[in-house]
Amino acid sequence: MATYVMLTTLTEEGRKTIKQNPRRIKEVNKEVEAMGAKILAQYSLLGPYDFVNILEAPDNTTIAKVAMELGSRGTLQTMTMAAMTLDEFIGSI
């Protein structure tokens, strides 16, 4: 499984949704897992991004599907990056 970092920014609509129903975040997590990705860690942030998620997925196609599905809802925007452990990076050099 490949590892990905997803930075998320809520839209105005997304902020309204979370304020009205904070548990929606965990509901979305279940939807992400149903699409084939696994959330390894999730943090709420202060700054230009609202959340950072560390995910595992079998491939780029799966994580692209997750990002497109979430983004198409109009409640958030994502920036997703492939990641590797330091050992994997050092081994690739």
Describe this structure in words.
With about 90 residues, this protein is an alpha+beta fold. It has a single domain, classed as 2-Layer Sandwich (Alpha-Beta Plaits), CATH 3.30.70.260. The protein has helices at about 10-20, 25-35, 60-70, 85-90, and strands at about 1-10, 40-45, 50-55, 75-85. It has a 4-stranded antiparallel β-sheet with strand order 2-3-1-4. Strand 2 (about 40-45) and strand 3 (about 50-55) form a beta hairpin. It is globular. The two termini are about 20 Å apart.
Shape: globular
Strand content: 25-35%
Helix and strand pattern: EHHEEHEH
Portion in helices: 40-55%
Please provide the count of β strands: 4
Which consecutive residue ranges, at least 5 long each, have pLDDT under 50?
A: none
* Average pLDDT figure: 96
Structural class by sheet pairing and helices: alpha+beta
CATH topology: Alpha-Beta Plaits
